[in-house]
Amino acid sequence: MKEVADEYLHLLGTLPSIQTTRAFTIEMFSSVNGERVEALQLDASYWVENLVKPVKFMDALLSMCLTKLQEGQQKLRMDSTATDMFLDSLIELGPHGALQSAIKETLATRPDSSKSTSFAVLNRNAPGISTLLETVAAINCRGYLVDLDVVNQAPKPVGVFKKEGYPREFLVDLPSYTFNHSEALLYESRLSRNFRLRKYPRHDLFGAPVSDWNADIPRWRHIIRLSEQPWIKDHVVTGKFVYPGVGYLIAVIEACRQIADTRFTISGFRLRDVSLKRALILPDDKGGIEIMLGLTRMDESSLWASSTWRKFQISSYNSLADDWIEHCTGYVATDYVDAPNPIDKGREHAEECHRWEMLREASGQQCTVSLDMPALYDSLVTTGLYFGSLFRNLSAVKGTTNGAGQVIGKVVVPDVAGIMPKRHVHEHLIHPATMDSMMHLFLAASLDCTRKKNLERPMVPTFIKEAWVSGNVDPGPGTSFCGHGKSKILAYDKFEADVHVWDDISGEPRVAIKGIRSSPLDSVESDGSLNRKLSHEVKWSPYLELIKPTAFKEISLLSSDSASQYRSWIEKQQLATLLLVTEALEELETAPPLQLEGHFFNYYDWMKHLRQLLDKDQVSGMKRSQWEILRRDPVQR
């Protein structure tokens, strides 16, 4: 250290002198010279000596114990053989009593040091508060003046040396202690660490991340209990508490919100090919039911996965069979706010907004007949569908006059927190009770399509072609939305519908669900007395051979556009048929059938007849020249 002593002295410069203004003096015994030092001695040269000279710990300690500091100070022993030992208590200030053994060995060199004791304020093998209080109590027992009221009532505002003055404060600017973490004394598994340090808490709608977390294949585990989710009791199907089908969609959306890239702003969520396979029936007990939500990358090829779409799967655990039941599958993508495309400069987005606005205006003009939605909710109970107050959020419903299968209405967000435990709900984009009420537009549109006042059997959605949910939905209670539902019949008691929802104030699009397909359920209370319906729609078409000339005025003809599309469709069908027929005849000419019987002979004769009509250019709805062009050009064919 002597090599840097001169530079060290130069850098220290002239140190300011120490001024003692207190009523008493704190004496200092230096380990540099092993004796008592005064404040004036603590100049720059002293600290250089402190750097280069050996530590005289033993000399300094004995000097402190054997030096008389005040007039009248008595020795520890008063007999004739007593030496000059004036201290009986030593306190070591530091993070640990590292010098206790050195102090005791030094004092042991003096025969009259048996009454001297050393204490430490901290011990790394014991709690800090306990060690400090034990030291203070021992000093108090030795007769030193200790204000125990200050010790036992630490929160009480006290002065530095008196009971009035400055309040006590914690020291927050002390340097941190450098702990050695290079050696792990306790092994902790990855699963334990993930559970203890998981980033997100449990969510009411989709649970918490599993301990075996994989960012590429994220999964969430959830236990649904009616006691924790009492709003589900307002959704009853055929006498059982059933989790709403839209709850699956919302769980997926909330999970995607949790793992979304925080550097960008979410504009919305897209879902497609959503298959609702089985209903999730919830038991009314403390155990509830365990569900698992998983997301995986959708493969675009065998070489790489999609950077946009993820496949999701929601399953529940069946404790009786010790297996998992799949309830819902589909695909989901998260959309972020992007700058306008330099090619179209936002025209595509503007056109999409224009289509939404045109749909809203057109639906308002077509739907003018009011529907009694409260009465419909009451009548649905007879079919096995019971919606409580939290699910009866659709009102002001209006249908069409001609059974076009379209309705409009308003949906108001219910106060779900009002019935939740502690009146608390986790943050969410849209609640299942709200979105399920939006789906009721589909039920109302189906009734408008059939011109009936009630369903004969309960219907539930089984498939959704595509759905979009805006990232700006307001989930606050009392928020109002306006919606439009359109439904058409696919088969008996089977419908396909679309639902569009706007913000009632701003008019901005919020939810779009297209291609909703539903199927009826057999009610548990059904007695099977309903007759089998072999047709689902009766449609009367005019028979031209029996119609009178005067009745032609009442026939509604197709528009020019519809007629042109119909003729184009007939032409394509005729061309495709003649191409197949001529190819089949050419193949049969090279290998003629030896014997044809029954309907095979009739088909063969029919194909030869069509070929004769084609040669004469007498086929209805097409020209021979078109057939020749397609026959020569396999690309167009």
SSE blueprint and pairings:
Blueprint: H1 5-12, E1 28-29, E2 36-37, H2 44-52, H3 57-66, E3 89-92, H4 100-108, E4 117-120, H5 128-141, H6 148-152, H7 190-196, E5 208-209, E6 219-224, E7 235-237, E8 240-241, H8 245-259, E9 266-276, E10 289-299, E11 305-318, E12 323-336, H9 347-366, E13 369-370, H10 373-379, E14 385-387, E15 394-399, E16 406-412, H11 432-450, E17 459-470, E18 480-491, E19 494-503, E20 509-520, H12 560-590, H13 599-615, H14 624-632
Instruction: Classify the helix fraction into a percent range.
Output: 25-40%
Side-by-side strand order of the widest sheet: 5-6-10-11-12-9-17-20-19-18-16-15-13
Assembly type of the shown chains?
Answer: single chain
Tell me how many strands there are.
20
Structural class: alpha+beta
The backbone outline, from C-alpha atoms, is elongated
Strand content: 15-25%
Enter the CATH topology name of the largest domain: Thiol Ester Dehydrase, Chain A
Can you identify the CATH class of the largest domain?
A: Alpha Beta
Give the count of helical stretches: 14
Quote the average pLDDT. Answer: 85
Into how many domains do the coordinates divide? 4
What is the second-level CATH architecture of the largest domain?
A: Roll
Uncertain segments: 156-163, 523-530
Largest sheet: 13 strands, antiparallel
The Rg value, from CA coordinates, equals: 45 Å
Q: How far is the N terminus from the C terminus? A: 96 Å
